[in-house]
Task: structure prediction
Amino acid sequence: MSINLAVATTLEDFLAQLGGIPADRVRTSPSPGHATFADFVAANETGDRGLYEWVDGTLVEKAMSYEASVVAATILFVLKSFVSPRRLGLVSGADGFFRLISSTRGPDVAFVSRDRLPGGVFPTQPSPTIAPSLVVEVFGPGNTTAVMTRKRLEYFHNSVQLVWIVDWINRSVAVYTSTSDVTVLGEDETIEGGDVLPGFTARVADFFSDLDIGQPKIE
Result:
C-alpha cells in the first residue's frame, strides 16, 4: 500500500494516510513525498532525532519509548537464544532496516530465516531488500492502531509470514498469520513459532518480566 499524495488535499489527510501520526514525527526537509533513499540513509546517519523510516518518499520518525525498548530487547534475547544455537537465521533490532516495496521499515525485532538470505550468506546492504520471516512490533504510547495496521499490511504484502504486535500496557501479543487471521494471547499463555520457527515456545509473561523490576517476585 502507498500514499496517494494527489488525494491528500490537507495536512490532516496526509497524516491520516501515514497512519494518523503526530505532525512532529514527519520530517519536512526533504519535503514529504520527495525524500529519496539516500535522504533516508543520511537522516539516520545524522541521528539528530532518533530513527527514521522511509514511507512513500517521506521520512517518518519512529515512535519510541523506554518501556517498549525494554520489552523489545527481551523478545530479541528470547528469539536469539533459540535461533543462534541452531543457526536458523538472523535476529535484528529496531535499527535493522529492511527495504520493502513501498517503504523502508525498522521493525522493533525481526527474524530472517537462512533460506531468505541471498546465497545463504550475511547481506552486505545497509538496508537489505529482503523480507523478514517474522516481525515484532511493540505497541504503546506514540503509536496508533492505524500505524500498526498499515505496517501489518505492508509486511504481509512483502511476504512476511508471521507478525507479532506486542502490547506492553495490556501485556498481550496479537499473533497474525495473515492480514486478518489473528490470535490474541494473554500473559498467562504460551506463544509458539509456528511454521516460521518450529519448536519455539515462550511464556508471554516472560516478554514483560523486566517491567516488574523492583516488585516482589511471585513464585
Q: What stands out?
A: The two ends are 47 Å apart (CA to CA). The first helix runs from residue 11 to 17. The chain is about 25% helix and 25% strand.
